[in-house]
């Protein structure tokens, strides 16, 4: 496709405007369902992690100038495929999709050369290919019948791929189902000119997989201005009206054919965003040199990071790259390198709502060595309506059976609002309940939950190590003065057990606190050493739940936030906790025989185990 073709008379972009055939879908889907389900991984792709929340979709645009009669040079594409295979584990590449115009003229020889090159990727990374206008007779739609392209890139090519699920009866449209980030995704690869029958088939595929988020790929979808702003082409508008806008599953639509590259965001009938992108670099040096675009899905951060580069040039010694190679090795313009912010759960809610995990019974989350476990649902306490005060004297039972029950008490002259019951909870929390603490300063106020004077936990010194876990949510906005508020601690001053190091002899022997900068601070005075090894987190977020774990292996202490080890963990020896036989406290930290302000926010399930646990064994598992 040339740049001139983008703005020539509408006749070159005239599209068929007919209603989608209604009777085709049922028969087509029946044929597709005959394709057996396959395992998520092929023998050559065992390095791909289908459960990781981060994965990559590779997109390969027009390669036609690399297969152009006697000037063909497949070397750049071979290097791209070598790169994808070699980098599959590191980038967690789930799939590669070609956007059409594999060849320049669609001759038997060009198609055969291209097919041989694509075989180098076979069994290493699953992929799809679709026909562009240069691969077939461009005046025809997908009902064109036999062609050199169909013989080499028809359904038989993909039959052994673990992702392949079927093709339209004509063979020019196909679909794949990927398993990535712990769920399934649908990729539709549609012909350059899909017919009404083809649209009916595509609708049938979507109807047969109503909960799968879908990526639509085709050759002619949209064109862009020089500033990268994109608009639907004539054929793209037909696809939008006939398929995309009415199917909320399609959240990303990718096309080639035109240059320069560009993108836009359209709103579908469900009032959700559909990202429409043009990827094509055949106008660049060496026909684009097999340039690849990667879509890095990150379901933890809620983004798709897009990068564009040429592995053929990347593989060369930087000192020996020619000037045009050096300027083409990676593209960093706003149409080539960018990030899309997507709340995946919210975007997919309309067709695939997130299943809320059911509460897990206490018996399922008390491993060997559980010393104490408190939760705020009916298994642990008498609950109340949302926002109702939890009265002084209320008891939260220790579900481990060791007698470390907690009793509620308010600090200073705090009123009923200082502690209320809430159904709010961390998504991975075993119990679907929490306590809302409304602590503060000037004057100091709050509420605490304390073990009884004879509770075994008061004197436990944890010589073999320990794991302390809790779920916490800070309010948003985080208003008022809440500096150095305590989350949990043991009562008693470190000076009373002869500790001479540390910030102050009045400091508790063990406490988890929040600094004015919203850094978590875990400070412990070990049972054996005269030291105060202190772990510090980053500035923790407000407005969302987080899981906090402190793990001691009998030698040193490590803090984890949401399953991730923090940087500022001390290397100093730390064996046990220098407890004094005084109560364990949830909701505040005692200092100088008095409590200051109480905690401000929500606290969920809290568990203490007398040995170090792996992250996968936390209250909410992290692999």
Descriptive account of the structure:
With 623 residues, the protein is of the alpha+beta class. The chain is 14% helix and 28% strand. The protein is built from twelve helices and 34 strands. Mean pLDDT is 90; it is low at 1-46.
Keywords:
eight-stranded antiparallel sheet, 28% strand, 623 residues, 12 helices, disordered N terminus, alpha+beta
A few lines on this structure:
The chain is of the alpha+beta class.
User: How would you characterize the largest beta sheet?
Assistant: 8 strands, antiparallel
Instruction: Tell me the distance between the termini.
Output: 47 Å
Give the overall form: elongated
Secondary-structure content class: alpha+beta
Helix content: 10-25%
- Give the rounded overall mean pLDDT: 90
Q: What portion of the residues fall into strands of 2 or more residues?
A: 25-35%
Radius of gyration: 30 Å
| Number of helical segments with 4 or more residues | 12
> Which ranges are low-confidence, i.e. pLDDT below 50, for 5 or more consecutive residues?
1-46
Number of strands: 34
Chart the SSEs and their pairings:
Blueprint: H1 3-6, H2 24-33, E1 54-60, H3 75-86, H4 88-91, E2 93-98, H5 108-118, E3 127-128, H6 148-153, H7 155-158, E4 164-167, E5 174-180, E6 183-189, H8 196-208, E7 214-217, E8 222-224, E9 230-232, H9 234-244, E10 250-255, E11 262-267, E12 273-278, E13 292-298, E14 303-309, H10 311-314, H11 323-328, E15 330-331, E16 338-341, H12 344-347, E17 370-374, E18 395-396, E19 406-411, E20 419-422, E21 434-438, E22 446-451, E23 466-473, E24 485-493, E25 508-514, E26 519-524, E27 534-539, E28 545-552, E29 557-561, E30 564-565, E31 584-586, E32 590-591, E33 594-595, E34 600-609
Parallel strand pairs: 1-2, 2-3, 6-7, 7-10, 10-12
Antiparallel strand pairs: 1-13, 4-5, 5-6, 8-9, 11-12, 13-14, 14-15, 14-16, 17-34, 18-19, 19-22, 20-21, 21-34, 22-31, 23-28, 23-34, 24-25, 24-31, 25-26, 26-27, 28-29, 29-30, 32-33
């Amino acid at each position: 496709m040339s740049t001139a073709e983008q703005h020539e008379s509408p006749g070159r972009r005239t599209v068929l405007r007919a209603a989608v055939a209604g009777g085709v879908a049922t028969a087509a889907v029946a044929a597709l369902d005959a394709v057996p389900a396959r395992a998520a991984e092929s023998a050559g792709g065992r390095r791909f992690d289908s459960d990781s929340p981060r994965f990559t979709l590779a997109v390969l645009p027009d390669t036609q100038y690399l297969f152009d009669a006697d000037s063909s040079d497949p070397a750049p594409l071979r290097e791209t495929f070598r790169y994808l295979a070699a980098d599959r584990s590191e980038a967690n590449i789930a799939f590669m999709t070609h956007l059409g115009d594999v060849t320049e003229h669609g001759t038997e020889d060009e198609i055969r050369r291209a097919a041989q090159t694509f075989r180098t990727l076979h069994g290493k990374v699953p992929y799809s290919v679709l026909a562009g206008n240069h691969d077939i007779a461009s005046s025809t739609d997908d009902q064109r019948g036999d062609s050199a392209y169909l013989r080499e890139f028809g359904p038989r090519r993909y039959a052994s791929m673990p992702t392949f699920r079927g093709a339209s009866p004509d063979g020019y449209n196909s679909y794949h189902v990927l398993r990535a980030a712990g769920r399934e995704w649908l990729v539709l690869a549609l012909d350059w000119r899909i017919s009404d029958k083809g649209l009916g088939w595509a609708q049938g595929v979507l109807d047969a997989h109503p909960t799968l988020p879908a990526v639509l790929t085709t050759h002619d979808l949209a064109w862009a201005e020089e500033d990268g702003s994109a608009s639907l082409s004539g054929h793209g508008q037909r696809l939008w009206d006939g398929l995309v806008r009415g199917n909320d599953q399609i959240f990303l639509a990718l096309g080639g054919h035109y240059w320069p590259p560009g993108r836009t965001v359209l709103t579908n009938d469900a009032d959700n965003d559909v990202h429409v992108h043009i990827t094509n670099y055949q106008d660049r040096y060496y026909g684009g040199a097999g340039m690849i675009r990667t879509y890095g899905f990150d379901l933890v951060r809620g983004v798709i990071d897009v990068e564009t580069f040429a592995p053929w040039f990347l593989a060369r010694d930087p000192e020996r790259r020619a000037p045009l190679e050096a300027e083409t090795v990676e593209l960093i313009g706003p149409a080539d390198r960018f990030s899309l912010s997507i709340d995946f759960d919210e975007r997919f809610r309309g067709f695939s709502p997130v299943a809320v995990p059911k509460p897990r019974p206490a018996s399922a989350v008390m491993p060997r060595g559980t010393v104490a476990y408190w939760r705020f649902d009916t298994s642990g306490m008498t609950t109340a309506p949302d926002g109702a005060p939890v009265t002084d004297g209320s008891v939260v039972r220790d579900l481990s059976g060791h007698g470390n029950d907690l009793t509620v008490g308010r600090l200073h002259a705090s009123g009923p609002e200082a502690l209320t019951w809430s159904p709010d909870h961390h998504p991975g929390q075993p119990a679907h309940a929490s306590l809302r603490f409304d602590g503060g300063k000037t004057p100091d106020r709050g509420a605490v939950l304390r073990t009884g004077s004879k509770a075994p936990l008061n004197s436990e010194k944890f010589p073999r190590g320990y794991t302390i876990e809790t779920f916490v949510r800070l309010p948003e906005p985080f208003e008022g003065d809440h500096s150095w508020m305590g989350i949990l601690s043991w009562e008693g001053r470190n000076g009373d057990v002869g500790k001479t190091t540390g910030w102050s002899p009045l400091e508790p022997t063990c406490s988890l606190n929040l600094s004015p900068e919203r850094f978590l601070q875990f400070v412990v005075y070990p049972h054996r050493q005269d030291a105060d090894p202190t772990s510090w987190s980053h500035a923790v977020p407000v407005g969302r739940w987080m899981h906090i774990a402190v793990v001691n292996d009998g030698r040193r202490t490590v803090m984890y936030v949401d399953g991730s080890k923090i940087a500022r963990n001390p290397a100093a020896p730390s064996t046990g906790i220098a407890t004094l036989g005084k109560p364990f406290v949830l909701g505040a930290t005692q200092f100088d025989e008095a409590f200051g302000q109480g905690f401000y926010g929500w606290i969920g399930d809290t568990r203490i185990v007398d040995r170090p646990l792996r992250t996968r064994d936390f209250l909410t598992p992290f692999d």
